[in-house]
Amino acid sequence: MKHEILTLIGKNCITPGDGQKVYDLVHPELLALNAVELDFAGVEIFASPFFNFAIGQLLRDIQPETLNRLLKFSNLNTVGKQILKLVIENSKRYYSDPDFRSRVDQVISEQANTQ
Question: Domain named DUF4325: which ranges (predicted)?
Fold first, then answer.
């Protein structure tokens, strides 16, 4: 199944909420082992919060090898590719290393409490 991100989200892929929309759309398909393509034609701006929610959290219950096989990205510009790569690397570590996850969660909690 192919999803056009420009139609679904718009030219700016920035917010966690927009990322969650993509996640909610593709997660059931991937769990059913269906191939999914995300087409980023026309998308101009990317931010890690979008990719954290759209893609990063998929690694919570889908193995990286399975995700690699089923999820394809098209028309993603260089900046988008760089951000996506970093998010995937961080998410792999977050979901596979309980000590790392605990430390990250602690830092996030402390930052939230100081604001």
Answer: 18-78
